[in-house]
Amino acid sequence: MDNIGTLEDNILIILRDGEYIEGEAALLYSELSNKASDPLVKTVFQIIYHDSLKHKDVLSLIEDLLINTVKMHVNIESVISQRRNLDAMVAQMIDIIRDVRNSVRGSITIKELSNIADKLERLEDIEETQLTSYEFLSSAISKSMDPRVQVTQVLIQNIINDEKTHKDLLEKITQIT
Question: Mean pLDDT, the chain, as a whole number?
């Protein structure tokens, strides 16, 4: 049996994995936006880049409040399950990012975009799985009149909505011919 750690440790790992995933996504989309030849595709990549940086910062800023709010409302087994899911996703994401970087050497034309589209969609699928962790954390926060808790819930929901928008945008730009 592996060392499962405390509830707080596992929540922190979930948040830090999320920060790592968002940071790596930001780096990738920054690189892709710099190489995109189509202005619309470039704009989409820049939006995802900026949103990913914002998500990374938000997750970092809400760590303490989330740990203190969530810890009384969930059992450790459910948190460990979420943590393990994210741990596996980080490894998959690193492989996909490496693959995308190796696939893109020069400027990204519309034709080349179709070549990396499947990889980007797999990357977004991983981030969509990451959303289940955010939704889990959001649902684990008790309903509270504390404005800090309410703001935290809105921030988490904003990340969830942004990720859904990213997936939608990527699906649409890969259809450009």
Answer: 84
